[in-house]
Amino acid sequence: MKFMWKFIVRRIIITFPQLILLSVLLFLMAQAMPGDALTGLIDPNVPEEVKEQRREELGLNDPWHVRYVDWVSGIVKGDLGQSFRFKMPVTEVVTDRVINSFWLSLVTLVFTYLIAVPLGMLSGRYNNTLLDSAITTYTYIGFATPIFIFALVMVWVFGYNLGWFPTSGSVAPGLEPGTMEYYLSKFYHLLLPALSMALIQTVSTVQYLRSEIIDTKQKDFIITARAKGASESRVYNRHIFRNSILPIAAFFGYEITTLITGSIFVERIFAYPGMGQLFIESVLLRDFSVVNAVVLLFGIAMILGALLSDIILSIVDPRIRIK
Amino acid sequence: MCKPSRLKWLLAFMLMLLLVLAACSGDSGEEAESSDDTESTEEAAEETEEQEEEGEEESEDNIYSIDDFSPVKTDQGEPMDGGTLNFGLVSDTVFEGVLNPVFYEGNPDAEVMEFFVEGLFSFDENFNYTQDGAATWKLDENDDGTVTMTVEIRDNVNWHDGEPVTAEDLAFAYEVIGHPDYTGVRYYLVENVLGMEEYNAGEADSISGLEIVDEKTLKITFTHAFPGIKASGLWDDPLPKHIFGDIPVEEMAESDAVRKNPIGFGPFKVETITPGEAVTFSAFEDYWQGPPKLDGVTLKVVPPETVAEALESGEIDTVDRFPTDQYPDVKDKLTNVEFLGQQELAYTYIGFKLGKRNDDGEAVMDPDAKMADVNLRRAMWHAVDNDAVGERFYNGLRWKATSLIIPRFTYYHKPDLDVPDYDPDEANRILDEAGYIDVDGDGLREDPNGEKLTINFASMSGGEVAEPIANYYIQAWKQVGLDVQLVDGRLLEFNTFYDRVEADDPEIDIYQGAWGTGTDVDQRGLYSRTASYNYPRYASDKNDELLEAGASPEAMDLEYRKEIYNQWQELMVEEIPVFPTLYRAELIPVNNRVTGWNIQDHWNGLYEVGVTQDDPILP
């Protein structure tokens, strides 16, 4: 155990330089975008001089390192700056969205594993059968289908043609927050986007699980288990499944990466006000303070995800801990 | 499974970020990124040409004209009592939620406010003020050249919380907008009030030009007479002082009074707001024109990609705007809606770089500029067939523009303006005469000095047709022997485009842009010598004179103003600093169950809108 703690602490210390590098990189990239929040304001009634004055006030004309230091010192104090577009503190803008995105991600993850585990098990257990081929075919189609096309098809079929699900927004208009109805409506609005993402995202996990199971079932200890007279279902559900699921659990942290990429498209298609949608809009409208905040949060989520995976892996596989 | 190295993941993340960013710029520009070198652009141009020829036969059936659309809904049946209208706010972004006319900046917020905020003055189709609004007005010219407007708010105009709308509220709005701490962009609407300058500079505690006569009467004195006093050039939205009075100006925009419980005195009041996505409204029974027919309105944001489906399924009854390019595809499917139409307040144009800006920010014409010869510019206008562009790329929903003052301004637009028609032979003749002759026999004209002439054309990406249209223009100019090339060999993304045009990038000789016309015919903001949006850097004495005259005290006489702007429209055809290419149609679908709907800007009858049945009519 002592070794593991050492590893975890070391691993956490390493994330700090990662975060700093991340923040510098994303700040520089935001600077490199042509235009700023005022470029889009092309109104003959608002002359260039007024815009220039606003730029000066907002500090848009300062050199990047001055602004970077400003920004970082703000973050340290928990202040992400002021959104030019929303005219309110970025922290407030982001908070609402983070909550929406969190639920969307959670439901997506649940769906992902609900689909992946049975499919992967079946496919691995009955490999090279028709069932396995069918599942593998699905995974290949899933690999090849871009999420933004798939989500559009889902909206069209289940949202508009069949009318089973709402097609946009995070909650039905007019409901009182806090009521049961409100939360049910929120969940109902989550289902279709989450399912769209999960159906695509799950395929890699299905594949991993399948090959792990095929791999494990030829191991010596399985033969031993069988020789001891364990029933076939016990062999699969206890011995093989347990050993195959561990690497999948380790893969969990990296799922966050896929979730974030997916959410950017899915939220836009479902007009679901989460972080992904906020990100796209803020980039297009050059609301830099929001872009920086969102990317920073994405980055932190990913780094933490990787950290989580490493920690799980180190628990599962002692070889990783050895330096 | 091996452990992926952390650095690799970081790199992968950065790569992803780059991809996403690239995808975004492609997103706003849809089609833009594909061709990086001129060669492929030319190929694309040839392809488009072929497509055009193929498309010609079937195109006959798919050409529409704005004349076939009415801006007023034809009622189908009697409205029932009550009912709820479902309104789609078509936007690929959320609405920001700055729901107050003093502070908002985004267009989606303006659409949300349509239902509960109303200006005090009504105006006619030329955007001249009338006496039918929530307030009446009277003008008096004073001996010292100042003008006093007496605004009298009707007695029955009340805020949604029951308080009366008072003269003090209107004065308060002026005080907030003029306040040194105010960071919005509305100051230009109040700057002509007497004493505003001192107040804005912090030198005075009050605005001397505002005088509250009684609870409902306010006298506003302006430093001088200007046509805007009569033509939508004034601030007319009061700000409820009993709510905002205690909030410091710099904190108003983020206050709950703007974001969570906004009020107005319009026909509907805000019930609930789901931030960024939806707003529900209920009827305001005490509305000054009478109680609304509808029980309420539900507004929700609908992405442009799915708006046609939402209309088909009856999820929404109508929208604030509709992507016109979808019309030919959906018009047969959407039998449950009526499409209303009118000209959009905008035009597309080609601009020529003619000068530079001096240190005072004034445009100075450069006689040696590549585009300095007006004959070259006129020939380029003759060379392009904008009606064909409108028909081929927009199914006739855009059409050839003539004047820089668009026909929507019925009073000021000069319909019989003599503009260059599509005539390549005439273009060739003009160019020959002006000395642009092909000296080296490569099929392309050289300039009068015999030097090679390459005109660099900047055009914006956006929409599927941006690229084929730019290529069409390049082809058309090539046919009269002019060598026009896209700047960088490709279309420019919106922000890049304006950054470079504004910065007077020497690589740009001509550009294609578009202007929304706003509601005032005053053209000084775009074409005067000092205007920062005068991107051609065009200036002439005659132009200065006419633009000043159009905004002078004499122009309070609308006859005179019209005459001046007629002369100006002619001047623009003579001197061609820019030439307008296309006018646009806006189409608004409305479910057949809706009665009394109207899309004209001067319409103020929202309270009379009804529905014939509870459920939407389906196709």
From TrEMBL, chain B:
GO terms for molecular function: peptide transmembrane transporter activity. It holds the Pfam family SBP_bac_5. Residues 1-22 form the signal peptide. GO terms for biological process: peptide transport. InterPro entries: Opp4A, Peptide/Ni-bd, SBP_5, SBP_5_dom. PROSITE patterns: PROKAR_LIPOPROTEIN. Residues 28-80 are annotated as: Disordered. Residues 28-61 have a biased composition (Acidic residues). The lineage of its organism: Bacteria, Bacillati, Bacillota, Bacilli, Bacillales. Belongs to the bacterial solute-binding protein 5 family. This is Peptide ABC transporter substrate-binding protein. Residues 140-533 form the Solute-binding protein family domain. Keywords: Signal, Transport. It comes from Compostibacillus humi.
